[in-house]
Amino acid sequence: MATATSQPAASTTSGHRISPSVVLAKIAIYVILSIWAVIVIFPMLWAVMTSFKTDQEIFFSPWALPATPVLDNFARAWTTARIGEYFINTLIIVIPALFLTLLLSAMAAYVLARFEFRGRGFITNLFLVGMIFPLFLALVPLYFVTQKLGLFDTYHGLILVYVAFSLSFTTFFLINFFKTLPRELGEAALIDGANQYDIFFRVYLPLAKPGLITMGIFNFLGQWNQYILPNTLMITNETGNTHYVLSQGLYYLQAKQFYGSDWSGLFAAVTIVMIPTLVVYLIFNDRIEKGMTAGAVKG
């Protein structure tokens, strides 16, 4: 009898019984996330599907699959609509801007995280203020400053502006990330005769790779889809919009639809613009969570 009476007690204490409220909460969370996933994914899938249709199919059977995929839509969007030219312009601007943003932010974050000096807290707070500074307040000053410096309607001018507006968030995030890295590694390298440049570039920068990848993804998505800054600093000129980026090119192409009827080309252009961001996110999506988790812990 003693064994029979003790068995239920053991199963009660060691068993994993989940309350109905917890089960209902999890079900509600999964339902909400599923609905949100459908809301986000369905428009993208519909746009990709529509990019393979003719204009007649878009208007008369918008929800049906294309009868025959029309690949000419992409060729027409790339050449006639000049999306290919805008694509190259965007790469010319985003790649250097992304590289400079990560390099300068990592250097600033390393110094602010590892060295004690007067004014360190003030400089850190300046980066925090830069994160909350509204972009719209800077558009008019930027317009006149870039004109005065000869940077208006130039690739390098927009690159510098992208870097300036990306530094605050990237540096503030990497400060906390560098604080999580062990100081003993730098001290050991210093004893072995390494200088501060060697310690940063050979020791800490490789260890900061998860944080750099995370910030690289966020900055790439933001700079790739940026519209306000290029629309302010890149103008229509007599050479035919040669400096337009993809966001401007898409808006220009959409505006032309009021006078034309190449909607299939427009959807093909939208698909072309979406592909790089989707590829980057699908490849590095697991790194985002790891980098954000590591950077959220302060040393």
Essential attributes:
299 residues, mainly alpha, globular, disordered N terminus
Write up what this structure looks like:
The protein has 14 helices and no strands. It is an all-alpha fold. It has a single domain (80-295), classed as MetI-like fold.
Write the layout of secondary structure elements.
Elements: H1 2-14, H2 20-50, H3 55-60, H4 72-79, H5 83-114, H6 120-132, H7 136-148, H8 155-179, H9 183-191, H10 196-207, H11 209-224, H12 228-233, H13 246-256, H14 263-295
Helix pairs in contact: 2-14, 4-14, 5-8, 5-11, 5-13, 6-8, 8-11, 9-10, 11-14, 13-14
CATH architecture: Orthogonal Bundle
Straight-line N-to-C gap? 56 Å
Strand content: under 5%
Globally, the shape reads: globular
State the CATH topology.
Answer: MetI-like fold
Would you list the SSEs in sequence order as H and E?
Answer: HHHHHHHHHHHHHH
* Mean pLDDT over all positions: 85
Rg over alpha carbons: 26 Å
Task: State the secondary-structure class.
Answer: mainly alpha
Which stretches are low in confidence, meaning pLDDT under 50 for 5 or more residues running?
Answer: 1-14
Number of β-strand runs: 0
Oligomer: single chain
Domain unit count: 1
Helix fraction, binned, reads over 70%
Q: Give the helix tally.
A: 14
Query: Which CATH top level class fits?
Result: Mainly Alpha
- Major β-sheet, in short? none
Give a brief description.
With 299 residues, the protein is mostly helical.
